[in-house]
Each structure stands twice: as structure tokens, then as C-alpha cells.
Amino acid sequence: MHATSTHTAPAGAAAPSPRIHLVIGPVGAGKSTFVRQLVQQHRAVPLNLDDWMATLFSADRPDTSDVMAWYVPRTLRCLEQIRKTAEAVLHAGSDVVLEVGLIQQHQRDAFYARMGPWADAMVVYVLDAPREVRRERVLRRNAEQGATFSMVVPPHIFELASDLWQPPDEVECANRSVVWVPEADHGA
Questions:
Q1: What's the predicted TM-score (pTM) here?
Q2: Which H or E run includes 126?
Q3: At residue 82, does pLDDT exceed 90?
């Protein structure tokens, strides 16, 4: 399914060294399904940005055309709390699986910097699929609201997020442990 990492956690961490499994990709790529596999395989704690946003803020979401002005600061606050929670789990000796967006390079770079020495204990899994396949998955997930559902993704948000997706470039791949997951391993 994927390669293993040889990274170790910062000095003082419990052995075996806990790892961060960061799952990235565009909306509808199969990340949530793949996360479930990783959580089971590594007996890890999952931390999902969409779950946090849905629980903490969905009831307060305004009906406005500029939902991004409302969404972005709340996302940043959730990401910071997820980072702190991930560090606590790592210090306790367990792996974490993060599904926290980071669809753009600058977002991932900032996240790696905030993780400090834990960034060296990170494996980045990249999932992708053709836009038409992802669009169909999202429409089905919106309708069925099954096991991987956390919130409705409206068509315009799907298109916006798809346009913003930036897969890791050569520099990111050279500086991180990056695993490109074949589509057959993460079908939603």
C-alpha cells in the first residue's frame, strides 16, 4: 500500500518513535477512506479538520456570499488546536493521522515549520484522482452522508478547492518523506 518511514521522533520521545501520518489531496480523492486504513494499521489517533469544523462551527455558519472570510480564521484556530493535540498524542507515544486540508504548498510549509522537530517524524501521503471521479464521489457522499461524511461540500466549494490544490513539488518531496498512494489503494 505504501512505503514506511525511517524518521524518528525528537529526543526524549517514547520508543518506538511515534509518527505523524499526514494525508493530503484534493476534495474527494479518497483521503477519509485511506485515513481509516492508516488508523487501523498504525493504531493511531485520527485528527480531522472537517470533523472539528463541523462540530465547533457548522451551527454558526452564516448565510453569506463571503463564507471564506468566516471560514478561514476558524480553520486556522482549529489547525492550531489540532497541532497541539497531535503533539500531546505524540509525546504520549502514539502515532497520529492528520487529515487537515493543507491543499496548498504554502499551507504545508507553514504547518511543517509549526511542527518543529516533529516534522522529521512525518510521512506525507498524497492521494489524487481525476476531477470527474472526485466530483461524483463528493456528490454521492453529500447525498448518502455515510461513514466518511462530516459536512456537505457544495459544488462551488468543490470547484474552488479543486482549483486551489497543489500537489507536492520536487523540493517538498526531497525534503519530506512523501508517499504517492495509487488510486486503487484509496477508492472512496
A1: 0.84
A2: strand 122-126
A3: yes
